[in-house]
Amino acid sequence: MSVRTLPLVFINLGGEMLYILDQRLRAHNTSEDNSEKVMNDIVGTMFSKTFMEELLKPQQLYSHRTMKTVLTRLAHTSIMRLNPASMDRLYELMIMAFKYQVFLCPRPKDLLLISYNHIDTIREFVKDTPVVLNQVDETHRKIIEVYSSLSEGEFQLLRQTLLIFFQDMHVRVSLFLKNQVQNPNGRFALSTSGPVPHGIDVPGLIRTFDCKGREVSRAEFPIGGCYTSPIREGSFLLHGDRVSTLGLNMYTVNHLEETHTSKTPTVKQADNTPNLLAKEELNLLARLMGSMKAENTPKAETVFRINLFNTGREEEEEQEEQARASGGARESSYEVINIQAMQDEQAATELALIAGQFAEGEKQENQESNKGDDLLAMMDDL
């Protein structure tokens, strides 16, 4: 069974990317015209009909490399330009934010509420552009149509797929560290208190019934936390009160200047070796990028640079001391992420390099086509 995970991944990661860009554009007093154009171009591409149709096709969730490549291309449909190092850090921040939201999700179905909160906020970004706003509404209606019919088991499978996708990402984020929701090793510290999922009783009571279904006794037990009943269920309609705050723009309250990312020694590095899904990933990449309209790509427009994370030397030294105290790496714990100007040719080179790696693996496969039985045997051993 294949659950459509890709649309929710791109909506939530794309939403987190827009939150960061919006906050930085405001902090740097970027002109209103440029800010509006950045948002409209990115949202217009992300919620275009052809792009979403490709995402909604039943398919497996692919690697972080493919996800990051498509998100980079998505960002480059505007006048924004990110160098590879900047995109790496930005991608890590988006992943960790979404991972934390999935962890806190009371029940699997509430993944939709997280996604709808992202869509609602994105809708506010483009509310003055009717054409793009209509694209967002149409996509939202399609998401409701596709996901509202899923069973509880399918939502659980969707959540499990996301957790597997996140499992090797343990990047430290200073905002989470400061709020003590993340440990120095990059793993989240989840609370044992709070509201229980909608429709679930608060734990702590054992009731005993007889064979006729009559309650005969009650006993209480310590629950190890402070649980409360939810106020009400969030709305799963096009508009409404989602109740949940997961998926909202956390940068409107917390300053992004204080948000940095840092890899820990326990982070599993990306594996650049060819894998069995290489051909499928290349096909997915080609389809998704082909669905991004060429007219959205800026030509002779002026691009600008934004410093996402403004870390001074004193702050860096303090963070290094904290990392050493927690057994972390001795090098600088937090790195500055810059959005820098980059020529389209350089972006094309990066994509071509990835495509070339896939193509090389496919060429070797064709050269050894007479060894199909041996290849199948090797695949069975994996």
Number of helices: 13
Radius of gyration: 23 Å
Give the low-confidence spans: 254-258, 265-271, 309-323, 325-345, 375-380
By secondary-structure content and strand pairing, the structural class works out as: mainly alpha
- H/E element sequence: HHHHHHHHEHEEEEEHEHEHH
By DSSP, the count of extended strands is 8
Largest sheet, described in full? 2 strands, antiparallel
Kindly report the oligomeric state of this protein. single chain
- Share of helical residues: 40-55%
Percentage beta strand: 5-15%
What would the principal axes of the Cα set say about the shape? globular
Explain what the structure shows.
The chain starts with 5 loop residues before the first helix and ends with a helix. The strands form 4 sheets. Strands 1-6 form a two-stranded antiparallel ribbon. Strands 2-5 form a two-stranded parallel ribbon. It is globular. The chain has helices at residues 6-27, 32-46, 49-55, 64-75, 84-104, 111-125, 130-147, 152-166, 174-178, 278-290, 313-325, 344-367, 372-381; strands spanning 172-173, 194-195, 205-209, 215-220, 227-228, 261-262, 306-307, 338-339. The protein has 13 helices and 8 strands. Residues 254-258, 265-271, 309-323, 325-345 and 375-380 have low confidence and may be disordered. Helix content is 50%, strand content 6%. The chain is mainly alpha-helical and 382 residues long. A hairpin with a 5-residue loop joins strand 3 and strand 4.
